Amino acid sequence: MIGIYLLIGAVTLLYVYLKWTFSYWDRKGFPSTGASIPFGALQSVTKGKRSFGMAIYDMYNSTKEPVIGMYLTLRPALLVRDAQLAHDVLVKDFASFHDRGVYVDEKNDPMSASLFQMEGASWRALRNKLTPSFTSGKLKAMFETSDSVGDKLVDSIKKQLPATGAKELELKNLMATYAIDIIATTIFGLDVDSFADPNNEFQVISKKVNRNNYEDIIRGASSFLYPGLEKFFVQIGWKQEATERMRELSNRTVDLREQNNIVRKDLLQLLLQLRNQGKVNTDDNVWSAESSKNGEKSMSKDLIAGQLFLFYVAGYETTASTASFTLYELTQNPEVMEKAKEDVRSAIEKHGGKLTYDAISDMKYLEACVLETARKYPALPLLNRICTQDYPVPDSKLVIRKGTPIIISLIGIHRDEEYFPDPLVYRPERYLEDGKDYNPAAFLPFGEGPRMCIGARMGKVNVKIAIAKVLSNFDLEIRKEKREIEFGVHGIPLMPKSGVPVRLSLKK
Description:
This protein has helices spanning 2-21, 24-28, 43-46, 52-61, 83-90, 120-130, 136-160, 171-186, 201-209, 214-225, 227-235, 241-260, 267-277, 301-332, 334-350, 357-362, 364-376, 410-414, 456-473, and strands spanning 67-72, 75-80, 167-170, 382-386, 391-392, 399-400, 405-409, 474-476, 501-506. By secondary structure, the chain is an alpha+beta fold.
């Protein structure tokens, strides 16, 4: 009998706790949605019906409120729907939202201290030190390496096409292979050819990053939603295979460079400058990373590994998705296709018949295509911040309390007709001077403000190289019927459910 009473008491306490938790926004006076107990806005995710980003997109479309309270399982969070408010959170009012609120433990787990995860003064100091790594001069110096990877992409496609006629290829995987090799060469400075060796170390790591198993789901959710729990997992020694493989690869490469005084024009070389000299050299012609006289290291090998892992994971998926989605849209919009092809042709012709960094920079219409793809298909469909000091919501009596997670649905804002007329129509002219028809505050594919993507320029260059190579060497078949890409139900990035099919043929 006592056992029954205890069970009834436990159930009652659980019921009271859940009701109290899921009435948080009612008590704070905020409008709310997605209060399904116990998973809140993520109910469709747990049922395998939507990915995380698309579940938040559903929340965005369920209301017209500028700010809406929701629940990410047991954690109350605010969804910011108003584009200007979202922009202010990222830029004007950055002081109140300068951190992401995800797991980081710089002291005990330095590999977690990537530029994405770091907080406060530590983040600002590292951001300032890394910024000179992404100047146009540095990217220009790396261009030859990127261009050679683009040639391998072309060779791989040619081998798969018949001598005459067209063949359908799945571009997402092809572009993922291209992107992995771009990252491996321009960031790590390693000779990798994933087209010839699909089982190399980088490919193995990428497959382990993208697994959809129980372990990775738990760790991903804890890092994002419950940082304290993730810290506990790390403290008890629960290691993640992809992270450990990247740590070993990075440390091995750093040791090789430092022991043999190897100098290469890549991002790792710039990180070694920071490690050995305390700063990245602002002279684009200086790449040496010799140690200072006192021999002190301002950056540990694990901290370097954390930055490399971030640039690798963030870089290859966004590059692959943006390049393949752009080419897919070109096959559905023949007028856009012709303009893009002419833009590529004329820019190459202007620069002596060669694809150079300057030629890529001159491809203004292709740039507009990439921006339109980034709008319609933001590689990361949401942005997250945490309120770092109480913030009165403009034009209301509401106050966002310190510690509140903030979510911005990029795909929601980018596909909102209030900000982008005909949002599902692919129209690169939106970004040309004589055709602008959108709310600039609503265009946030790379984030905005002090924490906007530091590698955005590098990413756009790599995407444009891939597209320019394909348009210069192949004919793309126009689709007879337009069809929107369907997204899968796993992960945070927008992953195509059935790949990105495009019919290509050798250029006549």
